[in-house]
Design a protein that fits this description.
By secondary structure, this protein is α/β, with parallel strands linked by helices. The protein is built from eleven helices and nine strands.
Length: 285
């Protein structure tokens, strides 16, 4: 039944899905005190204005509602018809070096579009492998795997086998996509500041960059108003990656903060960024 609903939604217009998503965002805000509290607390830590906090409620719903449209988009409807690039010359320059590329994207805007847009533009010569956590529900896991199986786009599970897959891709001069503000499992992260509060932060991104000697860039996708499409933005890091796991994790968090504050109304403030993974020690103060 759920798969039928998702497939039906995938055939709706982007404008109608965004309208539905806005309502869903406010509904989730109204019925879930924990979601409401977490969203407020996280946004306050980042000193996000109240107007941007309110806008983020509807934007979070739009992100969910547009997923069927993005996941089940036929090849006759390439994402390039809807997404334009800013800063793609940085990707071209990095790929030309032939040493692999890591793209770091926060839970900002439409991160699903980032991988699709890259695969359409560069995937023939430099495929991208993106890290993902399989959904717990079998029907959703099957749908995700089917939807993300696109030319030039591969997925790697959050496991040792997935890490090896990403290292192989980078050593072949290919690209890897990560969401470094995703809370990693215990043992795969360190505590580092994120908007002034200690957050368990993945060490994988820095390990991949150091171990393979690849280039790295920052990438995010903004959802345009009025269902006018998307803008994929690519930016260079503000500084080289420092030595040491703790310092590198802190530097990457600062880069994610810099991106998020460019468009705080499209960040997922309700994401449980500051949770402590099971088995992880509490941060020292």
């Amino acid at each position: 039944m759920m798969q039928t609903l998702v497939r039906w939604l995938s055939r709706r217009s982007l404008r109608s899905l965004h309208a539905l998503g806005s309502a869903l965002g406010w509904l989730a805000w109204a019925v879930s005190p924990s979601h409401r509290r977490r969203s407020r607390e996280n946004a306050v830590l980042a000193a996000v204005p109240a107007a941007a906090q309110r806008a983020a409620i509807a934007q979070a719903g739009r992100m969910v509602a547009e997923l069927p449209w993005l996941w089940l988009s036929p090849q006759a409807r390439p994402i390039s018809r809807w997404a334009r690039w800013e800063g793609d010359e940085r990707v071209d320059a990095a790929l030309a070096q032939g040493r692999g590329l890591v793209l770091l994207t926060p839970h900002l805007g439409v991160f699903e579009v980032c991988a699709q847009a890259y695969a359409e533009r560069h995937g023939v010569t430099h495929p991208i492998t993106v890290l993902y956590r399989p959904a717990r529900q079998a029907w959703l896991r099957e749908l995700e795997e089917t939807a993300r199986a696109r030319p030039g786009l591969a997925t790697a599970p959050a496991s040792l086998a997935g890490v090896r897959q990403m290292i192989r891709a980078l050593r072949h001069g290919q690209t890897v996509g990560l969401l470094p503000d995703q809370v990693p499992p215990q043992g795969m992260g360190v505590w580092a500041p994120f908007f002034g509060q200690e957050a368990y932060t993945m060490t994988l991104a820095a390990r991949l960059i150091r171990q393979t000697g690849c280039a790295w860039l920052l990438m995010w996708c903004e959802r345009l108003p009025g269902a006018e499409g998307y803008v994929v933005r690519v930016q260079a890091p503000s500084q080289p990656l420092p030595d040491g796991e703790q310092a590198a994790a802190g530097a990457i968090n600062r880069e994610m903060e810099r991106l998020i504050l460019q468009c705080p109304e499209q960040y997922l403030w309700g994401y449980h960024r500051y949770k402590r993974p099971r088995g992880a020690k509490a941060p020292t103060t």
